[in-house]
Queue: 3 jobs
Job 1
Amino acid sequence: MARKVSIQVLADELGLSKYAVSRALSGKSGVSEATRQRVIELAKSLGYQKASFSQPSETGREPDAPSPFILICMRHIHSGNHSYWQRVLNGMLMSCDQQGLPYVIVSPELEAAKLTGEPESPQHMLAPHLDWTRCGGIVVMGTFPHSILGLVARAERPYVLVDHVDPLISCDKINNDNIEAGSIITRHLLSLHCTHLGFITDKAWSASFADRLAGARSAMDSPHGTEARLTEWRIPYGEPGWENALYQQFVHTEPDKRPDAWIGANDDIAIRWMRKLQTEGISIPESARIAGIDNVEASTLVSPQLTTVNLCKEELGGRAIEALLRRIERPGAPMESIHLSTRLIPRAST
């Protein structure tokens, strides 16, 4: 007797999830057009009879069955960052709109991950007000503590991390190539014959800061950097007035041990340090060269304009949604760690 052709049979034959096959057969959003056609062709060839094959509507939704939503986790501290995080978020939302996918944005409280003695589910601890039966997948933006990421991992939904890496969490990760960014800006300053580079950073602020410093150090290890040196200047980036404390450290450093070029771990650090030096009578770039990383709009509004490294923002968000849909369609596929390439933008500050 011929076996009954079910959604599970189709999923096994194609290496897809039952969710992806069901969405493809019903014409709903959440799967790529290429995947939809593969599913329909196999269903026809195997004689799948349960339902007719529908094409997606203009909205990608069926009136009697709302599309699953994408849950986007974003920290409150990033919601006001219009130059970077809001642009990454915009890329995600544009991609969701193009796919006809609804979305929900939440900011899981850090306290939610603490042990309370309550037998609550990870889903309830992350977002108790949501209907989790409709959650198709999760995107986690930026740095969250491992305890929060642990809840996401146990929420039984496909998920991806964006602009963050946690070695203890096994999932798809979408990042800018921060190591490349640190290396590019360092090599640029070395090409200008700078002999002592100061890297201003707060490694506790972001994993990307640590990667950028690692990239700078790797460039110093190249033959081009053997006669130059790199020093790390640490700041409490989240606290006001760090520029004044850093300047006091600078003036108490012997003149021959002061950097002749500076790299900010991001553009904001570089701009604030440049302004501090200028108020103290130090001209840029005549007395010191300064560069940043990010290419935010403010880098073109200062004088002199800031040399920087362009990092993709909207593209990073859009790529995250693509990765999540891939994970939904192919749950057994190998995990991916994607790094978007960067680009040097030389300007007058160097």
Job 2
Amino acid sequence: MSDHFHTPGDGHGHGHGNRVVSAVRHAFTPHSHDSADRTDSAFESSSRGLRVLGVSFGVLVAAAAVQAVIVAMSGSVALLGDSLHNVADALTAVPLAIAFSVGRRRATRRFTYGYGRAEDLAGILIVAIIAISAALAGYAAITRLVHPQDVRALGWVAVAAMVGFLANEWVARYRIKVGREIGSAALVADGLHARADGFTSLAVLLGAAGSALGFPIADPIVGLLITVAILYVLRDAAREIGRRLMDAVDPDLIDEAEHIVASTPGVLGVGSIRLRWIGHALHAEVEIMVGHELSLVDAHAVAVETEHRLIHRLSRLRGATVHADPDGPEGTDHHAALARHRHAA
């Protein structure tokens, strides 16, 4: 066990008196994880997210600009669809950047949990942008099927396809890596979106190859395939954002939290554990059972240690509300007055 943890049971050899002093001090002064440490961590996570978005936005806009020039030269609707997709992917950085910036604000009496859920609102805009790019790409492909047209500068179309693939794959790796490190599901989803864009860029090569072999219809057909690929990305993005809006979490996180709480000295039982994402940070509500013979100060110390261990050991957790229930006396229902309200729903 790390010496950093101060459990109410062992007290690091300081005895009951110091436990009381520590608990009383905590009651009147903020816990270190509740103030500067959490603020600094949140600020650094948002700063990293903003850096990722700025760099990836520049890379994707540059790639889309190269592709747009070659679209004008070649008339390829497959490449047009890919270029539109890259523009849409670059634009998703804008609402995310705004959300990261807004999420830095401190909680207020109106927004008591802070502004982290701005990321979820940004996710809705991202889904809308992806849907618009799918509609534009599909319209261009269907129009070309109805009114066939030869594709020119096929070599340049192939070059543009490779530019799109390389740019998107680099951006995807960058976003996914940092998104996982800072706990931002929206950034990870955006990275997966970029990876899908990279593979649609490779599909443009098929259209160019088909046109080179004398099948000009291959270009709009690939354009339609790209539209279908965008729709799959749209489905996955909508599912991810929908889960976040519904406060879904990975069940493995609940299992991990239960293990951490149950192993805390002084915890005799674990009640409900609720986790929710607010932006790219986790928040928890935990119910524990403690000995009914404990004083209020000692029961509070157990709750404090439970929160302390959760913050240190559960990745991305920024805060926890721990409710301590006495384990007796036998036959006593300490929540009798709330029974009707809890079962009303």
Job 3
Amino acid sequence: MKKLGFFNKIIFFFNTLFAVLLLLSYILPYVFPKQFPLISVLSLTVPVFIAVNIGFMLYWLVQLKRQFMLSLIILLIGYKHVGAMYRLSGSSESEEDGIKLMTYNVRIFNAYGWLKDNDVPEKIVELIDREAPDVLCVQEFYYTQKDAFNKNYPYQFIKYTTRNNRTGQAVFSKYPIVERGSLEFPKTGNNALYVDIVKGKDTVRIYNLHLESLHIVPSKEHISDENPEMLFKRMGNAFALQHRQVEIFDEHRQGSKHKMIIAGDFNNTPFSYVYKRVRGTMKDSFIEQGSGFGRSYDFDYFPMRIDFILSDPDMEILSHKNYSELLSDHYPVMAKIRFGKTPEKKGE
């Protein structure tokens, strides 16, 4: 510090502060939201802490100052967090045999006109038809589109969860569905659907999971106008509800005798207890084959990844794709998955 000027000493002070905050954030996936809901909200800030520490590291490197080691060491300690936020390279397309699964929160097909375009429902259907997933998991499905996918998806399961039977979740499949059901979460319109699909000799369970919403309007203007204390408290309550929903889900999946894929809108980040518990030992398609930030939610402040596709450890993620078409407050996510790993060649 003796060789640092006054300005750089101030910079290093803030560098140290953000390095400590990032280090402490590494324990957030182990904090129970039911017991510490407000602390759990801080998991949303982890991408900011990572980005700021990268900025400090580059600042010192340009000046050839050894202080860059502070942020570098903290980032290396949490390399899994960094990898969950950004991937350098991956595969968005694959010609190998597997199923293509898409998850998409369609925000009830713009029924209340959040987007100015009048043809949003048609554009969503066109996008799905063009990308042609074999299995489609939809959150916030709207009853007006119940026949939109009949042509390409002979096997369907739609469950309306609101009192007026207009909104809910849905799974559309090109492969036969031999078992289906819904996990009802208390005091909410959110739930989890499950279907067992048959492809060849394989039967695989697919969950379409929609956890409690944080009810954040994704714009700087709205967030800056809202009372910070009320916003923070509401998000903490939502995280606590998510914890209970994940417990219900976790208990149910223990009874499945099939390999499984979990897809959906978790309304939480990869740095949270909720994600950690749902994922367990499963593979995250973005971490396996994604690239860039993997943004799945339209949020002004930073790229948020809250929509996931997770697969059984014995499955192989062949590709992962994030889309940029803004037809909802979420972006669709698709992965191609092979049910069994590629056999290793002799001598390898």
